[in-house]
Amino acid sequence: MKVTRKVLGDAVEKKIISSEQADSLFVFLQSQSQDSARFTFTHVLYYLGGLIAIGAMTLFMGIGWESFGGGGIVLISLLYAVIGLVLTHIFAAKNLAIPAGICATFVVCLTPLVIYGLQHWLGVWPDHSQYQDYHRYVQWHWLYMELGTLIVAVIVAWKYKYPFLIMPIAVTLWYLTMDISVMIAGDDFSWQIRQLVSLYTGLLMIGLAFWVDIRSRYKADYAFWLYLFGVIAFWGGLSWQHSDDELSKFFYFCINLFMIGIGVVLVRRVFVIFGAIGCCGYISYLAYNVFNDSWLFPMVLTAIGLLIIYLGILWQKHEKAITVRSRKLLPSPLRELLESKP
């Protein structure tokens, strides 16, 4: 739960802690959470500004930059990178972890542009594509840019250890698997293969995120971006699959229910959100395609909803006992990970 001044004030009224202890505890909790991403106006400004700067050099890069030539693109990008590193050090020295992490991420996101300009400069870039296509099309010749970005990202993340630096790593891993698949499949790279690649890439990224989550359970949340893009890739690849088999559609529904359960256990909202969207999609399919003319279906669905509410009441009543018993059966690292969650 979120600890506010009101919560601490209620504790003072019930004589659980003193007024001085409440004030000291509130100051301590504020200092502990100042570097954690929260939905405050300050943090919104941080991320809005950072994403605009990153987007300007990645998603919104126009063809006007081509007029600088390969060498000009490299030099300008390196100048931006130096500015980003200087700002990272300035913010880090002032204990402003979030803007420092955003500036370090900005430097990593410049890497594909630098490699693109370098390849143009050396005359080894294919003439049929431009940098602004990097985020829109799957092409095998993006591989050098992606591998270079991963190397720089790992080095910068190892140096500065800001969780936001995992974001370009997650995105680049997703891009990399798609482009490697194009290189292997060649002209046979169909939409069906794209879906399967996305699905299995998502599974691998979720597995990597879980491993990172366990390894960093007492540190910062380094797994967030891996979970986010892993779930998007997996759920997208899964949802794009087409089947006329009702059993397969029900299996899809069960997978989404399982995602909700995983999200609750690991306290990861991204699993719950996409799992809920998938479940709602399946129920909508049943309502409009399978039981469209049935008067009984809404009644059964209402009964199921009430049953789930009742199960929630039972769970709340026995949650502590069930949690204690079930966690005794888990491996020590996983038990410690779950105990570290709120």
Give the overall shape, derived from the CA principal axes. flat
**Which parts are unreliable, with pLDDT below 50 for 5 consecutive residues or more?**
none
Query: How many extended strands?
Result: 0
The CA-CA distance between the termini, in Å, is 7 Å
Mean pLDDT: 83
As a whole number of angstroms, the C-alpha radius of gyration is 24 Å
User: What is the structural class?
Assistant: mainly alpha
Order of helices and strands: HHHHHHHHHHHHHH
Helix content: over 70%
Tally of individual helices: 14
Give the biggest sheet: none
> In what range is the share of β-strand residues?
under 5%
3D structure, described in words:
With 342 residues, this protein is mainly alpha-helical. Among the domains are: 1-33, no CATH class; 39-189. Helices cover 74% and strands 0% of the residues. It contains 14 helices and no strands. Helix 5 (97-109) runs antiparallel to helix 7 (143-160), helix 7 runs antiparallel to helix 8 (166-185) and helix 10 (224-239) packs parallel to helix 12. It starts with a helix and ends with a helix.
Keywords:
single chain; 342 residues; 74% helix
Topology, pairings included?
Layout: H1 5-13, H2 19-33, H3 41-56, H4 69-93, H5 97-109, H6 111-122, H7 143-160, H8 166-185, H9 191-215, H10 224-239, H11 246-266, H12 269-290, H13 296-327, H14 332-339
